[in-house]
Amino acid sequence: MPDTPAQASAIYRSILDVISNVEPRISGAIAQELTDQRESLKLIASENYASLPTLMAMGTWLSDKYAEGTIGHRFYAGCRNIDTVEAVAAEHAAALFGADHAYVQPHSGIDANLVAYWAILQHRIEAPTLKRLEAATVNDLSEADWEDLRQLFNSQKVMGMSLDAGGHLTHGFRHNISGKMFRQHSYGTNPETGLIDYDALRATAREFKPLIIVAGYSAYPRRVNFALMREIADEVGATLFVDMAHFAGLVAGKVFTGDFDPIPHAHIVASTTHKSLRGPRGGFVLATNEYKEAVDKGCPMVLGGPLGHVMAAKALAFAEARTAEFQTYAHNVADNAKALGEGLLKRGVRLVTGGTDNHLLLLDVSAFGLTGRQAESALLDSGVVTNRNSIPADPNGAWYTSGVRIGTPALTTRGFTADDFDVVADLIADVLKNTAPAPAKSGPSKAKYVIGDGVAERVHARANELLSAHPLYPGLDLG
Ligand code: DSN
What we know:
Blueprint: H1 6-22, H2 24-38, E1 41-42, H3 52-58, E2 69-70, E3 73-74, H4 80-97, E4 101-103, H5 109-132, H6 143-154, E5 157-161, H7 177-181, E6 183-187, H8 198-208, E7 212-216, H9 226-236, E8 239-243, H10 248-252, E9 268-272, E10 283-287, H11 289-295, H12 298-301, H13 308-321, H14 324-346, E11 350-351, E12 360-364, H15 372-381, E13 384-385, E14 387-389, H16 397-400, E15 403-407, H17 409-413, H18 418-433, E16 435-439, E17 444-451, H19 455-469
Helix pairs in contact: 1-2, 3-13, 4-13, 5-11, 8-9, 14-18, 18-19
């Protein structure tokens, strides 16, 4: 990580003083969060550490401005600075990914996905219906025609990766709006290999005939062949929507190229900015020219006023991702994930799909007699922050699970190398091998666990050695 500019410590101390005058518990939590993040091995695959300029841009008065609408076409007066911020962010995003168009207003990944879904519905269903009925907008429709249009919206089909195979809630899961607003059918992975079975996917698509095929994941440790997904989408007349929230940094950093780069193949791409892309918390959408007009209607379709301060931070993060340093970072993320995987395999830890070719790994901890929840808790007690995750056909369900998901983006930002990740693998294996389920009233508990004497302390001490060698925001001293 780059050294923190000398004045940053004084600036942050002043900021915390000012906040403390209003509510010291908040300044306390902000300061404590830095300590906690500094002192733990952050392996949550969806987290990272944004740069100080990115964080600083969010603490500004851009937050105080309403700017519903789009660049140059706002429903409030006085938006010239938000126009600048949004235009610069969109320019950097489009250039970074080589996309026709970027829309940087979504507040989160779910918002970005909703913008994408409604842009597709608007373009594929609403626009042709209006044309057929010779109406310029839905305002021109009779109540009966408007009701027919609503029925049409509600009868569309989406096909995404199932949650237990590594897909995301927003890809059609029944407890998410995507599973309620669409008729949905999911595709999974091959039970033997854990990999996407494109032949089975094609057969399902031929039969189900979805309007939208969603590609992307939050817990699948492999690349996706987007060229093949587009071929399947074209064959069945579907729009290919890629949710690259997890791996946007690997696309930006040119780790995923050719068939594995979603941008040339998808009609529409949505993402978060804060995972492997290392920006502020937020979302964005990339679209082909065909979909750009519909995407720009994200506000007011599903979004409220854009967050000017976050769009400013996104602009900085996109600009940072356009550098050679970021490309090196992204390649290191993938190389480190491979090193971590190899380190775990040689220590007897089972990995879903047998390895990784992105930034994340999914550990099957059932061979240690543990649930994902027990493993996650024992690792946390030892200073290793992960999250439990279902594995395909998980017998323990989504709450206890049999898996733990880990990723390399955050620690790679701190400068961890492949050798460091081999040590991390050793620490994880040490905890898993020395943890056992605690007895419950009838049979072993799915939540409680016992760690062997001294193991958590030993792992903590070795983790601290690694963390001290790679300080977070080096030189930033809150006093
Ligand atoms: N919460 C994100 C993740 O951890 O992958 C997805 O929404």
